[in-house]
Amino acid sequence: MANIREIAKAAGVSVATVSRVLNSHPYVSAEKRRRVEEAMRRAGYSPNSNAVHLSTGRTGMVGVILPFSHHPYFHALLGGLMEEALKHQYTALLCQTNYEAGEERRYLQMLRTKQVDGLILCSHELPWAEIAAYAADGLLVACEPVRQEGISCVYTHHYEAFLTGMRYLIRRGHRNIGFCIGRRDSESSRQRYAAYADALQEIGRPVQPEWIFEGCTDLRDGMRVMDRIAAMESRPSALLVTGDEAAAGVLARSRQLGIAIPGELAVVGFDNQPISEALQLTTIDQHLQEIGRQAFGAFYHGIVQPGAAPRRMEVPFALVERTSV
Amino acid sequence: MANIREIAKAAGVSVATVSRVLNSHPYVSAEKRRRVEEAMRRAGYSPNSNAVHLSTGRTGMVGVILPFSHHPYFHALLGGLMEEALKHQYTALLCQTNYEAGEERRYLQMLRTKQVDGLILCSHELPWAEIAAYAADGLLVACEPVRQEGISCVYTHHYEAFLTGMRYLIRRGHRNIGFCIGRRDSESSRQRYAAYADALQEIGRPVQPEWIFEGCTDLRDGMRVMDRIAAMESRPSALLVTGDEAAAGVLARSRQLGIAIPGELAVVGFDNQPISEALQLTTIDQHLQEIGRQAFGAFYHGIVQPGAAPRRMEVPFALVERTSV
DNA sequence: TTGAAAGCGCTAACAA
DNA sequence: TTGTTAGCGCTTTCAA
């Protein structure tokens, strides 16, 4: 409706002065500031963002790419990220891909058309090489380890984290250890699997394919896993589960089936999500909130220091001992 | 990076011509069009949206306000809406509120700052009167019946839909009918409850408070309801459930408990979601996709005919008979 | 069929 | 401390 010129006229000042109070610059007399604010209030004025963004070349928005946002994993990541964004007056724009490459491409395009200053990728469908092509148009941050020119990254060392989990179970006397994994095809998944296999090798045990469960992300997946284990003649005595949500499903079903935890089956989860505390589940905390915070930090660093080299940052994990082992 | 002026220079034409090919105007010679396209391709050019939006006064974006998007209810609504939006070259911007009024206000503010051309509200926290104050800044469409100056609406007649469901159960001989409802405080919920109570009155039965279950939205809620019913001495013989997701939970748990459907308990769901077909659940289809389509249609009508009066549109529902009654 | 030029609403360098 | 003014990148008359 009203624009800065009309406000200036109403307040009897120049547009520059109005712009100054809009951006809380110093060097505006108290009296003029008051008059400008009054004029804005009366006009119900809000600046046109398109004009602001065009003029400044910045949008104050960062896109966050994820498949969906309702899983506790992304929820935690987002929590830390948005908290940090808020602190620096940035707005996070949720970009849901539903695991579709086409959607992801549309969001990358937003970088090129200057709708966001950068993109934080919590997941990705496209190959990193294709994504990196957009580095010229804005900042790119990944929440997993990537080695690509122009992309910053913040990540957990999944190999070490899972090795830690495995050795912990082994120290507690387990030899027959099963493994639940989420999506198979990510780099992190490969690292996790490698740690699982290597740890078994350390104690001279072969990998038992029937003890490896793929596609475990939510509660119901975990319940299904427990059903399958219950039906086995030779069961594992322990389970390393990629997410707490799935681990919670294992626990829930085991109770229904009357299988004792940890007596008959020890369980180590991953992520230290709220549900794991409620269920007293031993888990590995990869500090997702911190990853989210650092991811925004890496983005913001690139904003504040244009031309700065991409960051690589490993966030430490921690084993949280409770009563499921 | 590159802007329209550089493309014009590279192609040896004026910026107006470049703008014309950008917007596929007629009256551009084939030869110049080719040269411009070639120049754009070589420069990897994409127009700056902020400049486009500022200049045109339109953004080609519509915000869709909802608490979250992963529930089948919103999924269906969004499906129809986005399909229609795509058809008219509009982009839907998902605005998740998590049921927080503050978030909703921030999204309304986007209307004022011209980041979106309109807002379609699939849910709302703020009172309609407060929302209507933004009608001056863009188009407002609600997915429920509202009577407020400046707001269009597309809706199901929930009272009639639930009356239909109740009478259907009554015709099938039921007298002891329970009722599952989602959130209590919406206008639709009130209508649904009124239909439930009125139908009981028609057959001279009182409302039994213990047969009314609130807060039923997902599968697990439905399972809990079934557990409670199973524990009752005097059980209802039929259940009218606000959403198919919750109804599916009732069915799932009843199977585990060995309670026959529809023999011991008849169930009517709502929404005709995919899961209801899988489970052969009798349900009331409120044609959510159509509501989504019409909601976008109401918005788009306001774009195409500026100044047009807000629309009110009732979408018909239909009872889908399957085997749970 | 084409181009020159005046905006769209704001920011920021510069001068005062 | 304030105002003038030249952009930011695009669209769209208007005249040719």
Automatic annotation (TrEMBL), chains A, B:
- Keywords in alphabetical order: DNA-binding, Transcription, Transcription regulation
- Which molecular function terms from Gene Ontology are attached? DNA-binding transcription factor activity; transcription cis-regulatory region binding
InterPro entries per UniProt: HTH_LacI, Lambda_DNA-bd_dom_sf, Peripla_BP/Lac1_sug-bd_dom, Peripla_BP_I
- Name the domain of life this protein comes from: Bacteria
Segments passing through the bilayer: none
Keyword Ubl conjugation found: no
The record places domain HTH lacI-type at 2-56
> Per the record, a Pfam family?
LacI
Recorded hits in PANTHER family, A to Z, give: CATABOLITE CONTROL PROTEIN B, LACI-RELATED TRANSCRIPTIONAL REPRESSOR
> What name has this protein been given in UniProt?
LacI
